[in-house]
Design brief:
445 residues, alpha+beta, Beta-Lactamase, Helix Hairpins, 13 strands, elongated
Amino acid sequence: MQALIQGVTTFDLAFAAVCLGAALLVYLAGAPPEIALIVGLAPFIGRHLYLLYRLSSLIGRHHRFTPPFPRGSWGRVFQAIAHYQQAIRRRRRRQLRFAHRFREAANSIPDALVILDKGHRIEWANASAPYLLDIYWPRDEGRLFTEVLAHPGLGALIDRADYGRPHDLSPPHNRALMLSFRISPFGGRKSQRLVVARDITAIYHLNMIRRDFVANASHELRTPLTVITGFLENLSYSPDTPASHQRPYELMVCQASRMRSIVEDLLTLSRLEMDDRTEQIGPVDIPEEIRTITHEAEALSEGRHKISLDVDQNLLVQGNLVELRSALSNLIYNAIKHTPAGSHVRIAWHREEAQPVFTVTDDGEGIAAEHIPRLTERFYRIDKGRSRASGGTGLGLAIVNHVLNRHEARLIIASEPGKGSTFTCRFPAASGLTRLENLKIDAGL
């Protein structure tokens, strides 16, 4: 590298020396000094001006710089630009190959992929988009996504900041389809949107069949179980019943009551699954509900557990009273039923980072990590024998999860074997309100 610099510098100095020598000869020939200097430096200056013009012309015409290059410092400049152009061409070829492979991969995916700009206009769509969304690229490029796929609430869904959960809808062009939408921000400053639509028609219909079957079967079982339980209770407590029959009747009453609890929970789940959004929204006095449920939990515990409260008495939440009471009671009752005697159950209700948060913490046996992702599944039990003995149906946390989803809230479960468990319900910040704010709403202020 040093030899190269030295060679370039030597050429420039040699050329300058030749020009100065020519100026000296002109001066010795009798020309005035200024004329001699101008004549001598004219080739030097002219060469630089010519090469500067050539450089500017090539850059202006986006021309490729190719050898032979000028000698001296200008040659280094031309050669550096040529190397830079070559690197750009290689990078561009790599980008084109990557873009081609990306499009091939995206077009082979059965899900519809649509890229939206910051104005929610279509930039690109893959090969599955015409069938699933009736969006053709490049025909629909530049059109509003909500204009091509007209659906109530879709624009608000794109604008919302919560993209964690999929949203199901039927496209207008083919109502026989059921699609699951996920919309994710990406690109510079996360201003663009990537829409992923998956065909879940078969799964949706299977879930509908399952839900209808469970609802119908549970409804049909409710009346017979009520009748059977009533007769069994009469027989169990009747003075005419032989003593040897008392124990079998008590066991039958217990199992019939357990079956009735399962039926009631199944009906509750079926009702919650009918719609993703809850109705009859209003201010819910969570502190009062916690107080009532805690009294019931103390009766259930019969003094075997220590229950402590940390409740913000001024914090309410917008929601459905019946559904939220069911969710909170399930979490509190579970802490009583599934922890050994002497356990400490802590119930908290307060704000965290502007979000209303309900927490139930116990210092019981804890839950192994492999069980936690499945706790909200129907009938999933960690210890089936212990769960049946405590009267659990295996549906409580599934109900809690459905209720929270309908309120746009999240259930977070943290546990460690031997150190207890924490069940946390995080509600949206917008759903929280104070008692004073509630009074102003009631007063129309």
